[in-house]
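Hi everyone,

Forwarding the result from last night's run.
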Amino acid sequence: MSQAPAPATRSASVGSMMAFAAMGCVQLGLAASIGLAGSLGSEGVAWLRLAWAAVILVVIARPWRLAFSRATLGICGLLGLATAGMTLAFMKAVETIPLGTASALEFMGPLGVAIIQGRGAGRWWALVAAAGVLGLTEPWHGAADLTGVLFALAGAACWAVYVLLTQRAGDAVDGIGALAISMPVAALAATLVVGPGVIGRMDVQVLAIGFALALLLPVIPFSLELLALRRLTTAAFGTLMCLEPAIAMVVGFLILHQVPRPAAILGIVLVIIAGVGATRTGRRDPAKSESSVDRPASSIAGTVDSHR
């Protein structure tokens, strides 16, 4: 007689499914952004998505009704800066180096988190996934522009910080309240960098397309990632994120008829194996936060608990 999965196993499985769904939304969002990038530029599209995402999340979460401690607001603010840096740095990187190379370099961020914070088998799965990413993107082909490499590495650093802060914010704030603070900060930071140059090119059609893109990237995937990080360790989450190049390659093969090289096929196998291993070993016990931000703003604000 078969036994029902233990709650811990179910929690890890649900978290993995959320992470996988988030990656699918990211790929759809990137694919849908190609046409708009021709008129706004890659930075302009990134700014428009962040701006709309801020509006959407503020309307949904209504952060003014929630109670945040000063420490929690600080975490959310830093998360917003990391989000803006991650988005803008990656878009700058792909202007001068191939997308595959930029993706491989940026993935070093969550992989670094996975390797440093992983325990036992978690560290080995991260190394397997790292080998898979190299096989998928083959960054050793051709010379890479140094400026593009530096931007990609800056994006990797921001992504590593994003992973850590998202988990801490998710522990301290119920629902998506943390994103209702971090995303406006990200939009404001992006506006200061690229907003003034693209605001004049806005029209009703562009704004409508930007709204739809913001749902695909970042509103839905970032919300799913926040929820997934409540159920997975940062090591498991960082490893699962390495499935994203594999998803992109499968989409390219089925829709764009891009035949992968043998090394890329081997990379797909490696990251899938690492993803399965991370799912089995990456359960995270629910955080016991003292905060309750669903209370009215007059209630006592909680504190941020460590994710360990």
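The chain has a mean pLDDT of 77.

Cheers,
N.
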